[in-house]
Specification:
The protein is α+β, with helices and mostly antiparallel strands. Helices cover 32% and strands 27% of the residues. The protein has 2 domains: 161 residues, 2-Layer Sandwich (Fructose-1,6-Bisphosphatase, Chain A, domain 1); 100 residues, D-Maltodextrin-Binding Protein, domain 2 (3-Layer(aba) Sandwich). The strands form 4 sheets. It has a 7-stranded mixed β-sheet with strand order 3-4-5-6-7-8-9, sandwiched between helices. Strands 11-10-12-16-14 form a 5-stranded mixed β-sheet, sandwiched between helices.
Length: 272
């Protein structure tokens, strides 16, 4: 697993460097068939990440690549699941709340994950048997590690192990910036009845999962369906820190069994 985590970390660092450069220098935006935006940053990140993980001979499921048929996916034992830029709307709107997300999935769980948010100076990584961590240095210092043979060993020298238990007052609740709905508002009102004081923060991307894991927030709820690639990386960050991401339909830990739609119904993660 450590060799695959090495690859995922290097892919995330190099792609995030290019994504940040494009973010700062300018990019073009087009619309996909589902009317969601895609930028030159998304496509460049997808190209870089794919170049790193393709030699592993593990199948790849990416938001920005053509999907293999259902018949092929049924035979996958494990596969890379990547979102080259999670939070493309935030990337376009220049809120800084976007990240590169890389996960390694089975039908039952996420085996490893990396979330890289260069504009927020955030880098999380995790894997089965290794644990969950956050880089505590300056983001740009990660670039100098790309030539390291064992980047996991090097990066862990300047990282903190997760989770961090929150000591927050008021209770901090995270929700989506771009997908906020009446359901989210009703859930927030429920929390207000359960806690003495609650503060709601709207943010973009799976970085919200990392915020909960590192104790910057108590809870994040996504109450509408999401694609596997929206959660694959973040799930590992939570799981190997000892936290559970609960599917709102099954009320059990998130799985990836619906290989036809590649979606889960929504989820909640807490750190209290």
């Amino acid at each position: 697993m450590i060799n695959l985590l090495n690859i995922a970390i290097k892919a995330a660092i190099e792609s995030s460097r290019e994504v940040l450069k494009i973010y700062e220098q300018g990019f073009t935006v087009s619309l996909k068939e589902d009317e969601s935006p895609v930028t030159t940053g998304d496509l460049k990140a997808n190209e870089i990440i794919t170049s790193y993980i393709l030699p592993t001979d593990i199948p790849i499921l990416s938001e920005e690549s053509e999907k293999d048929t259902l018949e092929k996916r049924k035979n996958w034992k494990r596969y890379w699941c990547i979102d080259p830029i999670d939070g493309t709307k935030e990337y376009v709107n220049k809120t800084d709340e976007y990240c590169i997300s890389i996960g390694l999935l089975t039908n039952e769980t996420s085996l490893l994950g990396v979330l890289a948010a260069p504009s927020m100076n955030i880098f999380y990584f995790a894997a089965e048997g290794i644990g969950s961590f956050k880089w505590k240095g300056v983001y740009e210092d990660l670039y100098s590690l790309l030539d390291s043979e064992n980047i996991v060993e090097e990066i862990m020298k300047n990282s903190i192990q997760l989770p961090v238990k929150p000591a927050l007052n008021p209770y901090i609740f995270l929700t989506s910036r771009s997908h906020f709905s009446n359901l989210d508002q009703e859930y927030f009102q429920k929390l207000e009845r359960e806690h003495e004081e609650v503060q709601m923060i709207q943010m973009g991307s799976a970085i919200k999962i990392g915020w909960v894991v590192e104790g910057k927030a108590n809870e994040y709820a996504r109450l509408s369906p999401v694609n596997f690639w929206d959660i694959a990386g973040g799930h590992a960050i939570a799981k190997y820190a000892g936290l559970k991401i609960i599917d709102i339909a099954s009320q059990k830990e998130v799985t990836y069994n619906d290989i036809e739609t590649l979606k889960i119904s929504g989820y909640i993660i807490k750190n209290i």
